[in-house]
Amino acid sequence: MVFMSDSNKFYSRVTNPANYQYLSITQAQTAGGQRATRGNQYAQP
Predict the structure, then answer these.
(1) pLDDT band at 14 (very low <50, low <70, confident <90, very high)
(2) Can you give the residue ranges of every domain in the chain?
């Protein structure tokens, strides 16, 4: 399961999950999402 943002990037860990959609990896990829290459203080790839 991953957290997908509005910018079609998905992350494995996030600080505020309410701001993201919680999907399986296959659902995220089907919806056009890509794994984020870099994280920040709020989300980790």
Answers:
(1) very high
(2) 2-37
